[in-house]
Specification:
Blueprint lengths: L14 H8 L19 E3 L9 H6 L6 E7 L2 E5 H4 L11 E3 L2 E5 L33 H8 L4 H6 L19 E3 L9 H7 L5 E7 L2 E5 H4 L11 E3 L2 E5 L33 H11 L10 H5 L4 H22 L23
This protein binds zinc ion (6 copies).
Organism: Quercus suber (Cork oak)
GO molecular function: zinc ion binding
Protein name: B box-type domain-containing protein
Length: about 350
């Protein structure tokens, strides 16, 4: 979905996207503050660092791919003609502002509901859309693919000893909080600092981090990832592992990313490889379906489209009863797992 140029050149979630979406634009450049065009409204896809001004562009970012951010009612927008060259913006609502077609970088505060409900809502933040698009902004489109806490989970170091509880028996840091999304912590920290937060427990198998399927499948779509039964519990690996020497008999199932042999016809050896696969190709998702995705997997597309409207409400209700809220983050700047209306707080 997010691949603009080609699959080789642009990933579905290119490395610069997160940085673009979290940059602060329109401050005054400290190097050029006495010049007329000194507001920092440029972003460099190569350097991927802070916003910069017109003059910085012609010096420090000469010949780099740069996009210009504009403003509409104090919100950052970008011209479709610029962004569509480097990103697949399909599904994102565009607007014509000052006779140029633009789209918003991030979710905006919601206007008060006005009575007449739109039939098109952003799938992430539920903002009313003008046209039948799926997302209000690039930020919401990105949030659809990968939950905000996942990268943090996959890069955390587990099983060190908790510095606050090192004299207690259960002090190894084997817990991760989906709300706080910070370092691993221990059993005792959980009951104090992360009381009532959604926490998952990491386990070990031959020195590799695993998580029980029963825990992770509540918050993540793990389809396509090889699972294993270890100590009579079904688990999956967080990350790619070093490959064993090839033994002659090749498996017919290989991880699409790291080429590890798999036992069963799965696509990925681990959550980490699935994440790479999503970023590269976008033909998988981590987000638990709350509506059409769930349906389309099980029936032909033509049928699904027709049935979607009718089934949406009913299916959504059923799934909410059997499943915890989806791990959408409403905003990259806000932490936590907001729950959708049907469940209440
Ligand atoms: Zn400057
Ligand atoms: Zn640059
Ligand atoms: Zn949105
Ligand atoms: Zn602790
Ligand atoms: Zn927490
Ligand atoms: Zn792999």
């Amino acid at each position: 979905m997010f691949c603009g140029v080609s699959k080789q050149e642009a990933m579905l979630v290119p490395s610069w996207l997160e940085s673009l979406l979290s940059s602060d634009f329109f401050s005054v450049c400290s190097s050029h503050k006495d010049s007329p065009r000194s507001e920092c409204n440029m972003f460099c896809l190569d350097c991927q660092d802070d916003a910069f001004c017109f003059y910085c562009r012609s010096t420090r970012h000469k010949d780099h791919p740069v996009i210009q951010i504009r403003r509409s009612s104090y919100h950052d927008v970008v011209r479709v003609t610029e962004i569509e060259k480097v990103l697949d913006i399909s599904g994102v609502q565009t607007y014509v502002i000052n006779s140029a077609r633009v789209l918003f970088l991030n979710e905006r505060p919601q206007p008060k509901t006005t009575g007449k409900a739109s039939s098109h809502l952003c799938e992430i933040c539920r903002r009313s859309l003008l046209d039948p698009f799926r997302f209000c902004s690039l930020g919401c489109k990105e949030a659809m693919l990968v939950p905000s806490w996942l990268e943090s989970l996959l890069s955390s170091d587990f099983f060190s000893v908790c510095s606050s509880h090192k004299d207690s028996p259960r002090s190894e840091c084997n817990m991760f909080c989906l709300d706080c999304q910070d370092d691993a912590f221990c059993f005792y920290c959980r009951s104090t600092r992360h009381k009532d937060h959604p926490v998952i427990q990491i386990r070990r198998s031959s020195y590799h981090d695993v998580v029980r399927v029963t825990e992770i499948e509540k918050v993540l779509d793990i389809s396509g990832v090889q699972t294993y039964v270890i100590n009579s519990a079904r688990v999956l690996f967080l990350n790619e592992r070093p490959q064993p020497k090839t033994t002659g008999k090749a498996s017919s199932h290989l991880c699409e990313i790291c080429r590890r042999s798999l036992l069963d016809p799965f696509r990925f050896c681990s959550l980490g490889c699935k994440l790479v696969g999503i970023k590269r190709n976008g033909d998988a998702s981590f987000i638990l379906s709350t509506k059409n995705d769930e349906i389309t997997e099980r029936m032909p597309r033509r049928l699904a489209a027709k049935a979607e409207e009718e089934l949406r409400e009913g299916i959504q209700q059923e799934m909410y009863q059997s499943m915890p809220p989806p791990p959408h983050s409403n905003s990259r700047r806000r932490k936590g797992i907001p729950q959708r209306a049907p469940l209440g707080p």
